[in-house]
Design goal:
Blueprint lengths: L6 E4 L3 H10 L3 E6 L6 E6 L2 E6 L8 E6 L2 H6 L12 E6 L25 E2 L5 E2 L13 E3 L3 E8 L2 E5 L6 E3 L4 E3 L6 E6 L4 E7 L5 E3 L22 E3 L6
Parallel strand pairs: 1-4, 5-6
Antiparallel strand pairs: 2-3, 2-16, 3-4, 7-8, 9-16, 10-13, 10-15, 11-12, 11-14, 13-17
Length: 238
């Protein structure tokens, strides 16, 4: 019977737990939701971990089989127990398995619960404009039906799959990101703010560890789930 196993880990501080496991070679594959994340999925060494703030389970012991245990053990110099209580033991393995490493590091941090802003993907601050709905540094995409990004203040440079060279959004500019279009936030200026409208409001962010942006082809007419990428420039508006 075909299937996939996953190890569920508890978490009180998702940011610190992600930092611990990425430091020893795990890569982050998914995080949900983008603003004030609840869980993240990481993988490496043939293991898939789901670190979940809403998982009420006892932290397990994970065994990693390594060709050079001493090298990996050095990365655990501060201790072999993760912030969530998971214990990691490194043992010798008989054959070498190549584990791909992410090109960039991705971290998620949180402000105090009393603050109205939280830090989500790509280091951007989020504030929920719909109080009733409480709730990129890497190439990634979103499982959405609709998503619009409006630049309110400052500027941001982003790059999109099959849409040519990186583009910069300034106040009044906006883009409609069709479902699952790969994109990456490259940099932004001080005081940068955007208004994001997404359906559904909480959606999955999935990281693409293989696609390189910008892509070679320029295909502005390409459809993603019957939608095309739209870039509105305020300076050209009537």
């Amino acid at each position: 019977m075909e299937g996939q196993g996953i190890i569920v880990l508890p978490s009180k501080d998702l940011s610190e737990d992600i930092k611990f496991f990425t430091n020893i070679g795990f890569r982050q594959d998914q995080i949900y939701p983008a603003d004030n994340p609840v869980f993240s999925v990481l993988s490496a060494y043939g293991l898939t971990l789901r670190i979940d703030k809403e998982a009420y389970v006892a932290p397990p012991t994970i065994h990693i089989l390594a060709e050079n245990p001493d090298k990996l053990t050095k990365k655990l110099s501060s201790g072999n127990t993760a912030p969530n209580g998971t214990m990691v033991k490194v043992l010798l393995k008989s054959t070498e398995i190549h584990i791909p490493q992410p090109a960039q590091k991705f971290e998620v941090t949180h402000l105090n619960e009393s603050d109205s802003w939280v830090v989500g993907r790509a280091g951007m601050l989020y504030r929920d404009l719909v109080p009733s709905r409480m709730g990129g540094a890497l190439v990634h995409y979103h499982k959405v039906m609709f998503q619009l990004i409006y630049c309110y203040k400052g500027w941001v440079k982003v790059v999109y799959e099959d849409q040519g060279k990186p583009l910069t959004l300034y106040p009044g500019d906006c883009v409609i990101q069709p479902p699952e279009i790969r994109h990456q936030v490259l940099e932004c200026g001080d005081g940068f703010q955007v208004i994001e409208i997404g359906v559904p409001a909480q959606h999955m962010t999935t990281f693409d560890h293989h696609l390189q942006l910008p892509t070679v082809e320029y295909r502005p007419e390409r459809e993603f789930s019957d939608q095309v990428f739209c870039h509105h420039l305020a300076k050209n508006a009537v």
